[in-house]
Amino acid sequence: MPHTPATLITVLKTDGTTAASMQIPQAQNYLVNVLKDKSRDANLKQALNDVTGGKGKPTGAYRFNGLPVWHASSGNGQKSVSLFYTLATVTATIIAMGEHVISTQYEIDVFGPPGSDFAQGKKINL
Fold first, then answer.
1. Exposed site from 105, 107, 110, 119, fewest CB < 10 Å?
2. Overall number of domains in the chain
3. pLDDT of 1 over the 70 cut
């Protein structure tokens, strides 16, 4: 089930603050710098395109700050990128970044809010 395309992106930082709302090109540059792994850049950009294109998928019962969490992924195995985010009208707030472990499991390996289901090092099963 597709969602409303996001036209603005914010990123939840690990200190609990959010980066200022960004247009898509700015968000790509910001997230590439956070990822720091050039071999995964293309998959990051595709996952972000899915967020902004309304092609993300629900994560079932997962919620963050009272909102349902969506995810968008690109790639397979070692070079994949999965973005976990919430939506408020046309703003997507990316709360965590990770990768596929297997087709139904993701590991938050780049960033995620400490003390939550999406903390760095956690695994998400869908």
1. 105
2. 1
3. no
